[in-house]
Give the backbone structure.
Amino acid sequence: MCGIVGYIGEQEAAPIILDGLGRLEYRGYDSAGIAVIHDGSIQIRRDVGKLINLRKRVTEYPLAGSVGIGHTRWATHGAPAEHNAHPHISMDGEFVVVHNGIVENYRELRDELTAEGVHFNSDTDTEVIVQLIARFAQNGAGGDVTEATRHAVQHLRGAHAIVVMNRKQPDRIVAVRIGNAGGVAIGLGDNENFVASDIPAIIELTRRMIFLESGQMATVQPRKVSVQNLQGQPVSPAVHQIPWDAVSAAKGEYQHFMLKEIFDQPRSITDTIRGRVDFEHERVLLPELHMPSEAAKALHRLVIVACGTSYYSGLVGKFFIEQLARLIVEVDYGSEFRYRDPLLDSNTAVLAITQSGETVDTLAAMEEARGKKALLWSIVNAIGSQAMREADGYIMMNAGPEIGVASTKAFTASIVDQYLLALYLAQERGTLSQVEISAHLHNLARLPDLVGQALESYPQVQALAAHFHNYRDFLFLGRGINYPVALEGALKLKEISYIHAEGYPAGEMKHGPIALIDENMPVVAIATKDAVYDKMISQIEQAKARGGIVIAVATEGDNAIAEKADHVIFVPPSPEIISPVINVIPLQLLAYAIAIRRGADVDQPRNLAKSVTVE
Ligand code: AGP
């Protein structure tokens, strides 16, 4: 996922841009670059590898100037190499561009431009953009960067976030958003303004931000920001006041963002509940959902669409919404949904769950839902993101910035948000008595403390990691509402420690996977006290009978299980319906502790990006 930062104002641009790119490092990248305009000339510095290499180059060859753009590149077209790093400059030396996304028709554009005599310096799709802008500037746009860019981008296919500068117009930066290739935030300062692909890059500089919609572009000057659509008509975007502060986006006393975010969960769960439960009248309030009672009653079905960890959260949400609101729920992968021609209608609601609000597959599923007239909701963490703004109604996770690539607090927050949604729908549809609703609200009130108690297992988990960090395969087993937790535990381990791990419904063991069990494949079994506890004990016995090593997640006070499993991580007792939020905690900690033992790059695992905005 590429990162973009731009600056225009009275300060030196280079330090601001480099610091901003540093705050986007979590997004994953393989090269970086910066361009600054000074005394009518465009100066570019680029390098492969981590930002430290670019910083060294800028120290060696300083950049002066108060307008500039920078980029961290996650290679799609063209290998990670200095000549492929952004920014890219037009052949005539007039324009320079950074870009996030994929030019799907870049081959035909490149051939067309080459036939007109354009020489390309890179193997990237991005370079066709800057050459196209230069062409329009020479033919008819009168050299104006906004007009030339507006015409040029109409010829691009695919999703893009593009930022452009023109050597002859050093008083402006142009930013364009088309489709869902990551956001474009315009930060509003005093006699200075900022452009960024994500909030953390500029949160320390301003909290007032505009977010471009798809099909909009902004001309950013030190004292003025003009937004228009691609037809050139002016647009008046909302200005968001971002509550996140720089501290919460920093690691604090933690070695990694991921560990900070794991331990942040009692607070993030509190914040996702805050303001949504009227404990005095014992009611759930979800005003941002814009869901009138009659519409809630008319609903026949809910389809949850999401990817990765958010998909596993949706699998838990299915239990809540079917059991409490008596509504049929399907859960589908965002990347599969639009290819199965889903049956949707105005009595179906589609709920997109996405921490970043920018996952291209989930956004595409939302577009599919919109096209088929379904009601569209989202559960989102990133303020101002596409999935927040596209939906008819939304529930903000309010989890604060989740920087670690491995999602943790967004998982638990989105589960709690679905519990709130289920209770809200139950209220509106009359499927729960007031006594029942009150009991569930009591469960919610206990959650932050129960999660805090579960976090106390960390020292014990660290000891287990010392023992298990060299195994090559793991199996995670869960049943009922904790089956999705087994899937999530396996994903956490595999994505940050690179150990192969599978999550499985425990009842499926006898249909194949049990053939895998031996002393080389530890089995993590979620066996807390619930309706399927006895079945889980039986699974543990079956695994042990085949020489398996079992790590059980069990309920404090359950001494019997210690005779069955090799290792036990205890969590506090809790009602089954909220147990996924508590049982996932030791699994998050186990993945983290094992990854640390293996010296993995926990916050920026190889090949992964925090927000997947390419298909
Ligand atoms: C989870 O740890 C992964 N980083 C990944 O599976 C993630 O959950 C997925 O890409 C969806 O992201 P989203 O919630 O921002 O849409």
